Inverse folding.
């Protein structure tokens, strides 16, 4: 059985194509590799499926981009064979090698943007979020090990010309869980 990754999901939490935070959203200088599920900072994030934690690390930090807060990611290889990357977490409850069960709390929602550091040099879509400072779970779905280190990948965004071959649109995957 699969569980939705947020315990307190709200109506219309899934972004539609073209909306801010949707999968492969065109951000002019980059594309969005996942889907953002907006939720209160600190809300529990749960494992969707049973699996094994294969990677945990820093997803964003001010050392990468000045207006970012420190957030974390967790990659779980699901028993179904898919790889889920849970990102922009404020905290993580698991470590590499841990076995997780569907519905288990693995971390908590974080806030990636530091509004005080957003200025006119930031991309337009970031400037629009300046005073909103949304907290969210950034969620990616991969057929094989997710890209976490690449010259084309940074903070859940792809700077290359083409979509990575093994990156999947997570919208229908999440929608099928939401319906159950």
């Amino acid at each position: 059985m699969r569980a939705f990754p947020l315990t307190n999901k709200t109506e219309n939490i899934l972004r539609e194509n073209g909306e801010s935070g949707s999968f492969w959203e065109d951000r002019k200088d980059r594309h969005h590799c996942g889907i953002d599920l907006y939720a209160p900072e600190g809300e529990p994030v749960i494992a969707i499926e049973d699996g094994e934690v294969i990677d945990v690390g820093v997803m964003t930090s001010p050392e990468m981009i000045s207006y970012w807060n420190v957030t974390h990611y967790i990659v779980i290889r699901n028993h179904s064979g898919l790889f889920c990357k849970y990102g922009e977490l404020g905290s993580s409850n698991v470590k590499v090698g841990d076995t997780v069960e569907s519905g288990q709390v693995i971390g908590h929602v974080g806030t990636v943007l530091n509004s005080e550091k957003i200025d006119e040099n930031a991309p337009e879509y970031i400037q629009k979020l300046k005073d909103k400072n949304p907290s969210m779970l950034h969620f990616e779905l991969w057929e094989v090990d997710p890209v976490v280190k690449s010259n084309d990948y940074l903070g859940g965004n792809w700077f290359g010309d083409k979509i990575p071959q093994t990156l999947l649109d997570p919208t229908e995957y999440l929608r099928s869980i939401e319906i159950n």
